[in-house]
Amino acid sequence: MNKPNIVVLGAGYGGIMTTIKLQKLIGDNEADITLVNKHDYHYQTTWLHENAAGTLHHDRTRISINDVVDFKRVNFVQDTVESIDPSNKKVVLEDGELTYDYLVIGLGFESATFGIEGLQEHAFSINSINSARLIRDHIEYNFAQYNNEEGDRQDLITIVVGGAGFTGIEFVGEIANRVPELCQEYDVEASKVRVINVEAGPTALAGFDEELVEYAMNRLEEKGVEFRLGTMLKKCTEDGIIVEKDDEQEEIKTRNIIWAAGVRGNSIVEDSGFEVSRGRVPVRDDLRTPDYDDVFVVGDCAVIFNEETERPYPPTAQIAMQMADTVGHNLKQLLNDGEDFESFKPDIKGTVASLGHTDAIGVVFDEKKLYGRSASIMKKVIDNRYLVKLGGVGLLLKKGKLDMYH
Ligand code: FAD
Ligand code: NAD
């Protein structure tokens, strides 16, 4: 008898943790497991802002899939998913096709561009190892270029970040630490460099604890970051950006535009005909799609709602990992004609955002506020716990943030 084939798409937090759960839970004779990913490595998206700023090498962030997944148990396919055909249980890859009995979609997020003119062409976004190292090299090149150009080329050493959500703030925190190093390396006067964070809303980190937001903004301003709140980025050009505040438009000249103003689910999912809400699949309680009993969605491609607020939970690595446990359990039930399906309930343990390597803000365990060094240590503890969960103490020793004070 043919064994059922479980195919997992994407080796981000959701996909890789589902695969690891399945390789533990599902016997060799119960099902085949296939994992498809664009690269032969998994990366910790939550560290990409550091790679993009150049404060952490990307090899610390990426982890060979072979090191954490058992290739004797799991068939790994390095390829790019182009589309999914759920009616025919088929996945179209750049280099072939796969059929499945059960599918887990974990293809992650992409930047939401809101149709802003020139954004695709002129802005960078932090969404993969490749995009992060491009940002790092681009900024460094412009600093190097500065003293090779005639006239005042302030645009080369002006860095604009669109969006003061967690990604924008974390990136700004890292780049503020990196600027002094860049200035020293390329003989640029530090006082000339501008780091501008443009946020459409009235505050940074909307909805987060106000005291902590104020702390974060003060600390970043002390390091030279200029906040432009209530200011909408309207257009990007080769020379810079156009922003609008109170119906007044202004041009900011810059060659370094980093767009960190929101994410949506991978558009492959929507383009494949799955029901989506703002690019993400409104999954059932058991994490299956509304229309297909054999398709699960984990991580940023899925949207789940907070029953109390009736608003969607923000997509996070924390939730993606928890979803992997539920999907693993429910797939085991499906394979064995079981009925003990688990309903997914996120268990939010807190939120901690870094402001550079030694500073952070956070709310953890029942609303306990943390800031400064203690929040920064907490962030590293969270990151290190993930590494242990993924690949044990060996992986922690190889990739972990073990020096808590730097
Ligand atoms: P991802 O982690 O995005 O993984 C998707 C995977 O799919 C990748 O391996 C990718 O290569 C692969 N893939 C994509 N397209 C294809 C394709 N077509 N074919 C094959 N493979 C493909 N959340 C937190 O909880 N805490 C944090 O501190 C935090 N910090 C963050 C910092 C930054 C800078 C950013 C950008 C996000 C942060 N988040 C954080 C959010 C978190 O990173 C995401 O919610 C999480 O990565 C979602 O996991 P995922 O598995 O859905 O997708
Ligand atoms: P976000 O949606 O949280 O924030 C985007 C920000 O961009 C908003 O403040 C919005 O007002 C602003 N914005 C939108 N359009 C704009 C425009 N045209 N001009 C200026 N500003 C504009 O997105 P994000 O920061 O990319 O985060 C994505 C997800 O990843 C979230 O769920 C977040 O919680 C998660 N994340 C978590 C952490 C952490 O826990 N440390 C870190 C990074 C990201």
In short:
The chain has helices spanning 13-25, 48-53, 58-61, 65-68, 119-122, 129-146, 166-186, 210-222, 267-271, 317-335, 373-399, and strands at 5-9, 32-37, 41-43, 62-64, 74-78, 81-85, 90-93, 96-99, 102-105, 109-111, 158-162, 194-198, 225-228, 232-236, 240-245, 248-253, 256-259, 263-265, 281-282, 295-297, 302-303, 350-354, 360-364, 368-371. By secondary structure, it is an alpha/beta fold.
Tell me the layout of helices and strands.
Elements: E1 5-9, H1 13-25, E2 32-37, E3 41-43, H2 48-53, H3 58-61, E4 62-64, H4 65-68, E5 74-78, E6 81-85, E7 90-93, E8 96-99, E9 102-105, E10 109-111, H5 119-122, H6 129-146, E11 158-162, H7 166-186, E12 194-198, H8 210-222, E13 225-228, E14 232-236, E15 240-245, E16 248-253, E17 256-259, E18 263-265, H9 267-271, E19 281-282, E20 295-297, E21 302-303, H10 317-335, E22 350-354, E23 360-364, E24 368-371, H11 373-399
Parallel strand pairs: 1-2, 1-9, 2-5, 9-20, 11-12, 11-17, 12-13, 19-21
Antiparallel strand pairs: 3-4, 6-7, 7-8, 10-18, 14-15, 15-16, 22-23, 23-24
Helix pairs in contact: 1-10, 6-7
The protein binds flavin-adenine dinucleotide and nicotinamide-adenine-dinucleotide.
Flavin-adenine dinucleotide binds at residues 10-15, 36-39, 45-46, 48-49, 80-81, 106-109, 126, 167, 170, 266, 268, 299-300, 315-318, 320.
What does this structure look like?
The chain contains eleven helices and 24 strands. The chain is α/β, with parallel strands linked by helices and 406 residues long. The chain has two domains: 5-38 and 79-111 and 263-340, FAD/NAD(P)-binding domain, CATH 3.50.50.100; 114-261 and 349-406, FAD/NAD(P)-binding domain (3-Layer(bba) Sandwich). The protein has a five-stranded parallel sheet, with helices on one face. The chain has a four-stranded parallel sheet with strand order 13-12-11-17. Helix 8 (210-222) links the parallel strand 12 (194-198) and strand 13. The longest helix is centred in the C-terminal third of the chain and has 27 residues, at 373-399. It is globular, with a radius of gyration of 22 Å. The structure holds flavin-adenine dinucleotide and nicotinamide-adenine-dinucleotide (NAD). Residues 162-168, 170, 198-201, 206, 232-233, 260-263, 314-316, 351-353 line the site of nicotinamide-adenine-dinucleotide.
